[in-house]
Amino acid sequence: MDKVRLTYGVIGGGQGLGGWFARFLRKKELPVLVSDISGKGDFTDNRELARHANVVILAVPIKAMIPVLEEIYPELHGKVLIDVCSVKEFLVERVEQLREENPDQHTYYASIHPMFAPTMEQLRGQGLLWNYETVLPARFERFFRGLFSKDGARWYDVDYRMHDRLMGVVQGLNHFNVFVSAKALRKCGVALADIKNFASPPYRIFIVFFTRYVLQNPALYADIQMYNRHVAPVLRLFREEVDRLLTIIENQDRPAFTEYVNEMQPYFEPNQDDSALSSHLIHQLGVYLDRARKAESQQATAEVEGTKKS
């Protein structure tokens, strides 16, 4: 399989993460074809794209992964299929079933998970997870991984089953916490502008991330929450802890509150280096906010002066 002559096809390449992959590969001066239901591509027919591409990257919404996989699979003999799905078990297991159902068809397959948003412009410091593969041609695998490594990204090999267990916490718990906290903030009846004005830099960081997540496509987060079977048990545990701490507070039980916090400290003590990192980030945010306030003040002054002159 000659990497120089490979054509890459990105299904779902007209937007989102698929759009990111299409742009990234084109910057690497690789031939790229795109199919997308929006019409922003070379094809609207996914099978037609699969016929013309040597490497097919499946970058559709999670709920569409299985239907599109089944649609294009007959066109993938002798080709490479790469999915970038955020949930792995249901998809990898369906690929394995298709391989068993079609013993005369040989399709190379890899399952990866880019741990960054499609708005990311620089790869340095970003991570990608390599979750599953049938045996790929070694030359191609080195080349494909190297496309990202050369830009400063890091690959981590994680079994697809462990991936979903980890993502139940890394994504499931994190997203749930953000959305519930943001909704509670919304229902408190205090204007967001007032909260921002009086928030310290540490609290402002929470506002930054609330805004980042809430203003993105909620369908993506819904699929991550609902397709990963490991999410719900983690969220039930979260609810138990919310109820436990709320009871302590309502009972005004200070010793119990202290014990509640103290009992989790051994878990986080090996991570003390992050305290220094948080101090650095808080300082940098404080500097950024100070500059922003000065710029706003200067602009307001200039507008007042302009009004006086007119």
Net shape: globular
Q: Average pLDDT, to the nearest integer?
A: 92
CATH level 1 class label of the largest domain = Alpha Beta
Topology-level CATH name of the largest domain: Rossmann fold
| Helix/strand structural class | alpha/beta
Overview of this protein structure:
This protein is an alpha/beta fold. The protein folds into 2 domains: 3-158, Rossmann fold (3-Layer(aba) Sandwich); 163-263, Orthogonal Bundle (6-phosphogluconate dehydrogenase C-terminal fold). 58% of the residues lie in helices and 11% in strands. The chain has helices at 16-27, 46-52, 65-72, 89-101, 138-149, 160-187, 192-198, 201-214, 218-227, 231-250, 254-262, 265-268, 273-309; strands at 8-11, 32-35, 55-58, 80-83, 108-114, 127-133, 154-157. It has a 7-stranded mixed beta sheet, with helices on both faces. Helix 3 (65-72) links the parallel strand 3 and strand 4 (80-83). Helix 6 (160-187) packs across helix 8 and helix 6 (160-187) runs parallel beside helix 10. The model has no long low-confidence stretch (mean pLDDT 92). Residues 6-279 form the Prephenate/arogenate dehydrogenase domain. Pfam families: PDH_C, PDH_N.
